[in-house]
Write a structure and sequence with these properties.
Layout (H helix, E strand, L loop, with lengths): L8 E13 L14 H21 L7 H25 L2 H4 L5 H24 L4 H30 L6 E13 L8
Antiparallel strand pairs: 1-2
Main location: membrane
Subcellular location: Membrane
GO cellular component, one term: membrane
Length: 184
């Protein structure tokens, strides 16, 4: 016997439609530099390059700590600089099937940690160029951490790196229950 208040039948139909809109032509878009990801990339490239210059101006640029900082900053400079160029010319949008957000999330997460280590090591060398490099290293650490957070949120939301994706969800429910029993 079915209890009163419980449906005899329950049907739920969910329809999810998704459309991705991208333009596959290459074009220069300086407006990207005014977005939060664009500003973060510019800060990352600039702080990586300035930190590298500071270390190279030191008379102690041959020590391992300085070499490590140079290695981290140059990989960050080139990787992020190339990505910035990809975004400015909409190459990321052209190749939208590549998981750009996941790639960037991984890189930003790893480089947050590596830059933090490099900046801390630079503070242990007691000369002015290393202190300046440490400052730029901490700026880069913060920029990469913020970018990693943005990429993590975008990956979880199912977003695209560039272009738009519209997801619409339609749910239909049908509930049939027997008539209530009257009396026992």
């Amino acid at each position: 016997m079915a209890e009163v208040g419980f449906p005899g039948q329950h049907t739920t139909t969910t329809t999810v439609t998704s459309s991705t809109t991208v333009q596959t032509n290459l074009r220069f878009d300086p407006q990207y530099l005014k977005t939060v990801p664009g500003i973060l990339k510019v800060v990352q490239v600039a702080s990586s390059f300035l930190g590298f210059i500071c270390i190279m101006c030191s008379q102690l640029s041959f020590i391992r700590k300085a070499t490590y900082f140079c290695w981290i900053s140059m990989i960050a400079f080139w990787f992020t600089g190339i990505l910035l160029g990809f975004y400015l010319f909409h190459m990321v949008e052209k190749f939208y099937k590549i998981p750009w957000l996941k790639i960037e999330f991984g890189f930003c997460s790893i480089w947050t940690l590596l830059y933090l280590i490099a900046a801390i090591l630079a503070t242990t060398v007691h000369d002015n160029p290393h202190s300046a490099a440490a400052f730029f290293g901490f700026v880069a650490t913060a920029a990469y951490a913020a970018d990693a957070l943005l990429k993590w949120r975008a990956v979880r939301a199912g977003g695209l790196a560039q272009g738009t994706r519209v997801v619409s969800k339609q749910t239909t429910s049908t509930v049939e229950s027997p008539p209530p029993r009257v009396g026992y």
